[in-house]
Amino acid sequence: MKRLVSLAFLAGLWLALWALPDVADRLTRKPDEVWARLHASGVMHFATEATFHPFEGVGSDGIFYGLDIDVAREIARRLGAQAGFRNVGIDGLYDVLRVGQADASISAMPIDPGRLEKWAYSRPYFDDGLVLVTSSDSGLHDAGDLPGHTIAVELGSDGDTRLRYYQRRAAGIAAAQLDSASDALAAVEDGRADAAIVDTLAARHLIATRFDGLRIAARLTSEPYVIAVWGESVDLLAAINGALDEMERDGTLERIIAEWMGK
Amino acid sequence: MRRPVRFAWAFRILLLLVCLWSIQGPPGPLTSIDPPQTVRTRNPKIGVHTRLTDEVPPWKIQRTLRLVREMGASWIVEFVPWAYLEPLKGDFNWEHTDQIVDHALSQGVTVIARLGLVPAWARPDPRERETTFNYLDAEHYADFGDFVYAFVAHYRGRVRHIVIWNEPNLSFEWGIRPVSAQEYVDLLRVAYARAKEADSGVVVLAGALAPTLEPEGSPAGLSDLLYLQQMYDAGGAAYFDGLAVHTYGLAAPTSEAPDPSRLNFRRVELMREIMLQNGDGGTPVYITETGWNDSPRWSNAVAPAERIAYTIEAYEWAASQPWVEMLAMWAFRFPQPAHTYQDGWTWLKDDFEPKPIYGEVQRYATGIDN
């Protein structure tokens, strides 16, 4: 019996220690001022560098448009707010959060691990990593299938970097280095190459608009785009993630992506 | 009976030591200086600007410089921060710079050291006046001169080229103050004299002016063309052996004709014109920063294939100009990715994976298809 009590005591102690950081965090955490302000004003302020089509742009009428803009508007709507946008230089996307000039930054932003001490990121909403594009009836399914084939890339691009990486590690991969991602997909379509390595954005856009006989056969790398908030905006971040989860579940996220870059 | 007790304690202590050792993680790879190597290249003017000042592990410094040599580049330009090397007046720490220089020399690569970044002790007391790390007032020019003397003396026979300051025609680089060619020449005069005192053979490079169109009176800075003329007007010609030039291609091809109202690669020819107009045609030009960026996120970037073509054309152009000593492209590799368009300048990723531009320049320079 004594032994059982001791074991129970130890288990309780272990659980208490396990939960201690979360309890301490809840007790010591500062209130999320950004979240409170957003609720009071009914406006969710986004910063974006509106120069990167199709993710963000701003018309001569001052109206923002693009995939990120639509994602931001939908998040704001689900949080019971309206989205407002502020156009800032790419170097300022983090600083506007620090000084409270925006609640969140959305601008096709990759994760920068060096920022995690002060800023926080949402879950990814789009992955612009490299993909393998083949004809619909191709037997190529992943990078391991590349030896013995000709692979088209845009000369000097990230796809070219990746192809050279594979060539250094496996013999028999021939390269067709062309002037653009479009040329690379054209080479696959007309049989000069067996596959192309391009980024997801180019692949989706070009397949949807010009090369409907091609498909994305495999994802080769990951380049997730995320939304940044100030690190203390814990409640706001949770709300953004919740909205993105919902948008993924009900198909809204994919619908927005498809509208801007094709299915 | 005592023996097992002693053994048990010895075992426990040993276990503790093993635990302590294991949480340190494995040591990094050991590095020793490579045997002397030679750069094999068809164009000995090829250079790159490295960023090894921010690189800590010695093996990464060594690997970077091996890759410089293997690409066929004979020169590097590297930033040498005064504030790091002389954190207290007269207290020098050469260890990190020694590593860079020793590894570079073992690879057969010539180092151009750009000197700048003011230590706190040579700036005003921050309780009285906030200043930036580029702020140096005239009363501390002698301190900078002392540092230049110490640097040149320490690296005598190993580092033969130094650049005095960086882009002094920009307010930011001049300590958030109005820029002044006269003040820069005053600084240059001190630095030049102390450098020559330490080693009469050292090549002192001046300028490293930022390519900019800023007009007279702009709070941001002053046009490099106007500033260079003002340097000559202030008697600066006597205080440099070569002119360091920054000339970026931005979105224009290498061949675009020079034009005072545009920033492009051949702007360096306008700088050369000013040197000739001032009777300084015998002084060589060192292009210590140039290049093209291929990030899709920057409006001044070019396509990756254009970047490769323009870069090789620029090296070819340098080879054909007798007044150009070398040409360094910004920037070979960053220790950490910037996760912005700045990454579009680099030739190697932070994990040393070469970008295609590295392979294409290597093929041009060495004939090796890697």
What does this 3D model show about the protein?
The complex is a heterodimer of chains A (263) and B (370). Chain A contains 9 helices and 14 strands. Chain A has helices at 2-28, 33-41, 67-78, 95-98, 158-169, 181-189, 200-209, 234-249, 252-261; strands at 43-48, 51-52, 56-58, 64-65, 82-87, 104-110, 119-121, 126-127, 130-135, 150-154, 174-178, 195-199, 214-219, 224-230. In chain A, strands 1, 5, 6, 7, 8 and 14 form a 6-stranded mixed beta sheet that branches. Chain A starts with a helix and ends with a helix. Helices cover 36% and strands 14% of the residues of chain B. An 8-stranded parallel β-barrel of chain B has the order 1-2-3-4-5-6-7-8, surrounded by 5 helices. Chain A binds chain B through residues 49, 51-52, 90-91, 108, 110-112, 114, 154-157, 160-161, 164-165, 177, 179-180, and chain B through 294, 296-299, 303-305, 307-308, 336-337, 339-341, 349, 353-357, 359-360.
What are the defining features of this structure?
heterodimer, A: alpha/beta, 6-stranded mixed beta sheet, 5-stranded mixed beta sheet, 41% helix, globular, B: 370 residues, alpha/beta, 10 helices
List the helices and strands and how they pair.
The complex is a heterodimer of chains A (263) and B (370).
Chain A: H1 2-28, H2 33-41, E1 43-48, E2 51-52, E3 56-58, E4 64-65, H3 67-78, E5 82-87, H4 95-98, E6 104-110, E7 119-121, E8 126-127, E9 130-135, E10 150-154, H5 158-169, E11 174-178, H6 181-189, E12 195-199, H7 200-209, E13 214-219, E14 224-230, H8 234-249, H9 252-261
Parallel strand pairs in A: 1-5, 1-6, 10-11, 10-12
Antiparallel strand pairs in A: 2-3, 3-4, 6-14, 7-14, 8-14, 9-12, 9-13
Chain B: H1 2-23, E1 46-49, H2 58-71, E2 75-81, H3 82-85, H4 95-106, E3 110-116, H5 141-154, E4 161-164, H6 181-198, E5 203-209, H7 224-233, E6 242-248, H8 267-277, E7 285-291, H9 304-320, E8 324-330, H10 356-366
Parallel strand pairs in B: 1-2, 1-8, 2-3, 3-4, 4-5, 5-6, 6-7, 7-8
